[in-house]
Structure to design on (275 residues):
């Protein structure tokens, strides 16, 4: 029997998100064509863990977005994990179909169930690389933290700042509550260079420490950036002390994602691998 996949599309615009990273350089033309890392047809597979009071968790269920999010945590060593890995797919689209204007289209999928898909964007050019993190279900917590962001060319000691406002639809007692708009003031600094051991090899990385300061406190992101693979490790800490670590496990390229049928084919192939 042919497998049936049910997808819930979580579109960025429906939650009144406005791009406010004013220092970010966004191209109007050739949005995808000059990407060196996040090329269309590429896939980046990440593992993750949620750390609360030194206990590691994963997600048993993860649905909805913002104020409609619903999720259940499960011990990371249990068999009932519903979200084990996160897949970032870079999808070719025509300009009018982009979720975020003038941004490379990316899709986030949750392995092994693949029951939902969320669309958002990233920016890659000679001036900067900026990645919108996953934000379905529990991952809406990442809205309160700095986004992965580098200004190029990277240099030791380099610093930059920015800001953004987010609505209280992202508020949650687990990672911070507020009313009205929350103004996040970001600061980034390149602190060190290191060799990071990963499942795809030893990678030369720049380490960028960043903060998001707001009226509810300070959230932190420590990101590891590879000039070959982009953001390969991200260590978040929420205002509440919850930590989320995300790291790159696998990279592949030259996939056909020209339409949703092609994306479904990729999903079926991945599900078949797990059987």
């Amino acid at each position: 029997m042919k497998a049936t996949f049910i997808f819930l599309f979580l579109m960025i615009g429906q939650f009144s998100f406005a791009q406010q990273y004013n220092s970010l350089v966004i191209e109007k033309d050739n949005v995808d064509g000059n990407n060196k890392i996040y090329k269309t047809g590429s896939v980046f597979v990440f593992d993750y863990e949620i750390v609360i009071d030194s206990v590691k968790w994963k997600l048993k269920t993860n649905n909805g977005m913002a104020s409609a999010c619903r999720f259940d945590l499960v011990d990371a060593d249990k068999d009932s994990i519903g979200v084990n890995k996160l897949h970032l797919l870079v999808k070719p689209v025509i300009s009018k179909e982009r979720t975020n204007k003038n941004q490379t289209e990316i899709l986030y999928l949750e392995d092994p169930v693949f029951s939902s898909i969320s669309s958002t964007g990233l920016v890659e050019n000679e001036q900067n690389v900026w990645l919108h993190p996953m934000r379905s279900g529990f991952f809406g917590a990442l809205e309160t933290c700095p986004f992965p962001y580098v200004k190029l060319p990277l240099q030791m000691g380099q610093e930059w700042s920015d800001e953004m406002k987010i609505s209280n639809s992202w508020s949650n007692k687990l990672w911070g509550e507020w009313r009205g708009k929350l103004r996040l003031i970001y600061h980034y600094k390149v602190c060190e260079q290191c060799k990071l051991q990963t499942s795809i090899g030893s990678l030369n990385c720049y380490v960028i420490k960043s903060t998001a300061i707001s009226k509810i406190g300070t959230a932190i992101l420590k990101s590891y950036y590879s000039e070959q693979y982009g953001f390969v490790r991200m260590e978040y800490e929420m205002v509440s002390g919850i930590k989320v670590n995300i790291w790159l496990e696998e990279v592949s390229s030259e996939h056909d994602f020209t339409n949703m049928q092609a994306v479904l084919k990729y999903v079926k192939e991945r599900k078949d691998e797990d059987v």
